[in-house]
Amino acid sequence: MEIFLLLAGFVALFLSGNWLVISSVQIARRFKISTFVIGITIVAFGTSAPELLVSLKAVYRGSPDISIGNVVGSNIANIALVLGFVAIIFPIKVKNSGIWRDWGVMMLASFMLFFFSRNFKLDFFEGIVLISALVIYLSWIIIASRNNRKGEVISVPPTMNMWKAIGLFCIASIGLFFGAEWLVKGAREIALKLGVSERAVGISIVAFGTSVPELATSIIAALRKETDISIGNIIGSNIFNIWAILGITSTIKTININPEIYRIDYWWMIGVSALLMLLIIPLSKGEISRWKGIVLGAVYVSYIYLLFT
Question: Which CATH superfamily groups domain 2-308?
Fold first, then answer.
């Protein structure tokens, strides 16, 4: 039964997250919102919606390790597992210098989380600061984009009927709600039966499940040779996970943080993020080649091995 709930949660989150993005983009286009703004707000939040619902459900079910572990584990998996896997299939060439700006913001978000977690909790005030940082960041890149894209067409016409888009949005929202419920419940019961800590389950199984949308997006982008989108999607998702997901969750209910997650997993998250920089610096021709993808994959496998031993 627990396995069924876990798998049902994975499927529901994957399908619902995809439908949420599609319907949200169509609704936004109906109101003539620019493609760029849609990309950095609606799509980014849509692909992070599974993490948000899972984190909220976990906190209210008394499983804070799953809530915080889901985000930290997802950020580690996004870089080490997702980018590593994609690079092994199709080497990722980094052409956009803006990646460095976003990487710096991702590191800032990671260190902010580390600083705020010193007392082993995230409360309402800290959540407000995280959300405010996200608002400032989004405002900054929207203004910068407008300055750099003057004269360009800023909107794309919708391809879906308005009522159909609204219906799909509602179905997606319901799917996310139940998908998160099933995933958290199944993961928690498996952890109790196997004697595995909720920290381990949250950082591995649950985090992998909520990272599936990023994996699918990155693979499709790489196959279409839109490699900047592939890596940009991962960095943007990691920023959103910390500033939006943990920010929103902690303003609703204080998140208690396991000291092990703070002392061990946070450093893995920061270390993997720093490793990404070393792999795409100009000296390496701005490319995550297949052997670098293997390195990232090996780092993730090592981390998961140490997590369960």
Answer: NCX, central ion-binding region (1.20.1420.30)
